[in-house]
Amino acid sequence: xxxxxxxxxxxxxxxxxxxxxxxxxxxxxxxxxxxxxxxxxxxxxxxxxxxxxxxxxxxxxxxxxxxxxxxxxxxxxxxxxxxxxxxxxxxxxxxxxxxxxxxxxxxxxxxxxxxxx
Amino acid sequence: xxxxxxxxxxxxxxxxxxxxxxxxxxxxxxxxxxxxxxxxxxxxxxxxxxxxxxxxxxxxxxxxxxxxxxxxxxxxxxxxxxxxxxxxxxxxxxxxxxxxxxxxxxxxxxxxxxxxx
DNA sequence: TAGGGTACTATAAATAATGTAAGTAATGTC
DNA sequence: GACATTACTTACATTATTTATAGTACCCTA
Lengths: 117, 117
Description:
Chain A is mainly alpha-helical and 117 residues long.
C-alpha cells in the first residue's frame, strides 16, 4: 500500500492491463488482501471502524485503515465522521459498491465448488 | 510467487480468510497480476505458450510460466505437451476454469460502469 | 558450423504489500 | 491527575510479488 512507483514496469503493466481489460481493472480495485472481506461485511449494512475490526480478528488497525482509504478513494465506500468524543466513524457501501454483491455471490459459489474438487 | 513463508502472519491471515470466506478463497486463486488476463484469453479456446506471450506484450516469460503453473496447480488450466521439436505446449481451461466466464463477464461490466463514474 | 525456433529455468534485483509496535487527540469518568 | 474509549497515524521491519537478464535443450535448416 501507500506509495507505488509510477515509473516502474509493474505500474505500467498494471495500467496497460487495466485499460484494455475492464475485468482486470475491477480485480485491481477489489484485490487487496482484506478488501473483499470488508466489502462482504458491509453488504449487510453500515459498520463502524471498531466493528469491522472485531469482525476480522486478524487485521491490524493500520491495514484496516489503509484498505478502507483505498475503498473510499475508489468510491466503493463512504466514510462518515460524527463529531463526538470518543469519535465515531461509519463506513457504508456506495451504490456502485453494492453492485459488487452479485459478483461476490458468484465468487462465493465458484469458490465453494472449487474447494470441493 | 514461488516461496511463501508458511509461518508468517500474512500467510495465516490469508488462510483464515480463505477458509471462512469462499469469495476470498476464489479471489486468491485468480488474483495474480496476470491470472485474470490469461484466463480471459483462454476463454476463447486453447492457446500455446508463445501465443499467450504475444497477446500480453508486457509479460515476461518467467511470469507467464509462474502464473500458468499456479493456474495449473489450482486446476484452472490443463497443460498439454506435444513431444515435437521445436516443442509445443497448449494451455486450455478446465471445466471449473470455464465456469469463471460469467464471473469475468460481470467483473467486466462492473469495471466499465465504475470507470465511467 | 552457425543460427533459429520453442518453451522453458536460474539467479538476482527491484517493487509492492503487509505486519509490528508505539503514539496521538479529545473528552468524560473515577 | 490517571485512565478509558475510539479511530486513527507514524516509523520501521518483514514478506510477497514482479521484473531483469541470461542461459538451457532439442533438432532442423542453411
